[in-house]
Write a structure and sequence with these properties.
The chain is 82% helix and 0% strand. Helix 1 packs antiparallel against helix 4, helix 2 (24-42) packs antiparallel against helix 3 and helix 3 packs antiparallel against helix 4 (69-85). The chain is built from four helices and no strands. The chain is mostly helical and 87 residues long. It has one domain (3-85).
């Protein structure tokens, strides 16, 4: 996935977050993850800080996998793409 595709995935994730019936704390957490990924696209952080974002995205994938498979697939693609780009 190139940077433009990642940006499109982030926009899709934001829209999906608003469509899902999530608890407020879940929505805030996911919005924070999306914002973190957007910030890393604009200004990459040191690798040790980036790894935290990748780990949190992976954890979110595990937590939402059964309840929201489409959303989980987008999160998984994003985590993989960011990791592959070194973000």
């Amino acid at each position: 996935m190139n940077e433009q595709e990642i940006r499109e995935t982030l926009a899709s994730l934001r829209a999906e977050i608003h469509e899902l019936k999530l608890a407020p704390e879940e929505s805030k957490r996911l919005e924070r993850l999306v914002a973190g990924a957007e910030a890393d696209l604009e200004q990459p952080r040191p690798p040790e800080e980036r790894q935290g974002l990748i780990d949190e995205l992976s954890l979110a994938v595990d937590q939402f996998e059964v309840r929201h498979p489409r959303f989980t697939a987008m999160l998984n693609r994003l985590a993989s793409s960011l990791s592959a780009m070194g973000i």
